[in-house]
Design a protein that fits this description.
By secondary structure, the chain is an alpha/beta fold. The chain folds into two domains: 2-179, Rossmann fold; 189-330, Orthogonal Bundle (N-(1-d-carboxylethyl)-l-norvaline Dehydrogenase, domain 2). The chain has 16 helices and twelve strands. The strands form two sheets. Strands 5-2-1-6-7-8-11-12 form an eight-stranded mixed sheet, with helices on both faces. A four-stranded mixed sheet has the order 4-3-10-9, covered by helices on one side.
Length: 363
């Protein structure tokens, strides 16, 4: 299969490498013409996947999408709307679409724009990325891990079986079927985890220090992660949606002995898989995860009558630290028409999407 990847950061490069290990080829869209030139000789991957993988790359989105069987969005949440608006006019009804990973109901926004064109293309959404790592050069990526469990759903939800089969073909048997996009939203623990990590390491980030992420998930930071997780679990319970705990997330995703969040992060660090935390305040841990992750979780909590006080406080604290109002930085939620919606109506909206003629479970 030919995969078009929109985004050329660590997740885009590692996604191309992972697809290549399963026998597929990739083309990457990048805004940077110099990176496109560098990628002409292929991707150099080290870590959990090692090797040299041929790819094509271009700053011309139409060129990248033109020959693709599958399109995968691999960008931070703050770029989703703008790129979706550029991408949708270029799509054809034969293509499949993956959002890696879905945040702030961007999959619903994408499906709505597709429906406006009269196309019957289901949107496959992941709860997190299939890989973790960092880009070390324009054409190089270090993979910290390849996740063995990635939650997956589709919009509309009745296209789930085909979405699971397609992603397994491209990236291996690592996907866990979830009933709808609401389950995906509530299964994403990255924003809450990153909130705790940032709050505990702000001065390191501001000074540009190099520091280990997992080794600095101290017992206190681990307890904050688990308290944030208690809020998420309360919201999921109110909506009768089963989700893994944050402890189960670390245990299953990173293959460490089950224990406290701090203990499991220490095990990752001792195994050489702890990774590095942000060395700058300009990080997706804040600019993506606060307005697009925490804000969305807090909205769901208010809708179902289970307020998330720590999440709300985290948004306000980091807004004060950065001198920016992160509550006004989300460009997706307002256009989705969720103001005043009930929990039942939200579930229906996310399960059904916007129907177009001919869209079925076999689409």
């Amino acid at each position: 299969m030919q995969l078009a990847i929109l985004g050329s950061g660590a997740i885009g490069l590692s996604g191309a490498a992972l697809a290549a290990t399963n026998g597929h080829s990739a083309s990457l869209w990048t805004r940077d013409p110099e990176q496109a030139d560098a990628l002409a000789s292929g991707i150099n991957a080290t870590g959990a996947i090692s090797g040299h993988f041929p790819v094509a790359a271009s700053e011309d989105m139409a060129e990248v999408l033109g020959q693709a069987d599958v399109v995968m969005l691999c960008l931070p949440g703050y770029a989703h709307r703008a790129v979706i608006d550029r991408m949708v006019p270029l799509l054809t009804h034969q293509q499949a679409i993956i959002v890696s990973s879905e945040i702030s109901f961007s999959g619903l926004y994408l499906q709505m724009q597709i429906a406006k064109r009269g196309l019957s293309i289901p949107v496959i959404i992941w709860g997190t990325t299939a890989t973790t790592g960092r880009r070390t050069a324009p054409d190089s990526v270090w993979l910290n891990s390849v996740r063995q469990n990635v939650d997956l759903s589709t919009i509309p939800a009745d296209c789930l079986a085909n979405g699971m089969a397609l992603c397994a073909t491209l990236f291996g048997e690592r996907f866990v079927a979830r009933e709808n996009a609401l389950a995906i939203a509530l299964s994403n623990v990255n924003p809450q985890n990153h909130l705790a990590i940032v709050l505990g390491n702000l001065t390191r980030m501001e000074r540009g220090e190099v520091w280990g992420q997992a080794e600095n998930v101290t017992p206190g930071i681990g307890r904050l992660m688990e308290a944030l997780d208690d809020e998420r679990l309360s919201v999921a319970a109110a909506l009768d949606i089963p989700v893994k705990t944050v402890r189960e997330h670390f245990h299953k995703s990173f293959h460490v002995p089950y224990g406290s969040v701090s203990d499991m992060n220490r095990a990752m660090h001792e195994d050489g898989r702890g990774g590095h935390g942000p060395a700058t305040l300009d990080t997706r841990y804040v600019y993506e995860d606060v307005p697009f992750g925490l804000l969305t979780s807090a909205l769901i909590g208010r809708i179902c009558g289970a307020p998330m006080q720590l999440h709300e406080a985290g948004i306000d604290i980091l807004s004060a630290v950065y001198g920016e109002d992160f509550r006004r930085a989300n460009d997706l939620l307002d256009v989705l028409g969720l103001s005043g919606i009930s929990a039942a109506a939200l579930r229906t909206r996310l399960e059904q999407g916007v129907k177009t003629p001919g869209m079925t479970a076999n689409s």
